[in-house]
């Protein structure tokens, strides 16, 4: 689909990429990490804030690390592996939360953020910017943030 000349197909591919990022669970996990940890630690806001900071640092470092190997492995396998990873991790997080085994939840959140940061996060803007021109990028960005806002 990336090699086709049709701009409509390229916009569809980029819209699917935007939806894959939005439905990966990253924004919801990022938004509610502090609340999840507070609920688990008896409303201790200080430790929840520190944990949120640690998770964000892990996310940033994972994106930086990902730039080293992206071109060596290939964008498509990494992106698809990232989507599969986030689905599996979200299922595990859901099971852990449902079974009330919350002592593992903070670590699962960090693993999720590192997995997202090493796969999907660095590739989404690259794929979109190489596939469509500026006006399409603007449209895709608007769709991305509207869907993100609706989900959260």
Determine the fraction of residues in helical runs and give it as a percent range.
over 70%
Oligomer: single chain
Quick one: CATH superfamily? Answer: MFS general substrate transporter like domains
**Number of discrete helical segments:** 7
Q: What is the secondary structure topology, with strand pairs?
A:
Layout: H1 7-22, H2 26-40, H3 45-73, H4 75-98, H5 105-119, H6 124-131, H7 134-151
Helix pairs in contact: 1-6, 1-7, 2-3, 2-5, 3-5, 4-5
Structure description:
This protein has 7 helices and no strands. It is elongated and about 55 Å long. The protein has one domain (7-151): Growth Hormone, Chain: A, CATH 1.20.1250.20. It has helices at 7-22, 26-40, 45-73, 75-98, 105-119, 124-131, 134-151. The protein is 82% helix and 0% strand.
List the defining traits of the structure above:
152 residues, mainly alpha, 82% helix, Growth Hormone, Chain: A, single chain, 7 helices
Give a summary of the structure in a few sentences.
This protein has 152 residues and is mainly α. The protein contains seven helices and no strands. The chain has one domain (7-151): MFS general substrate transporter like domains (Growth Hormone, Chain: A).
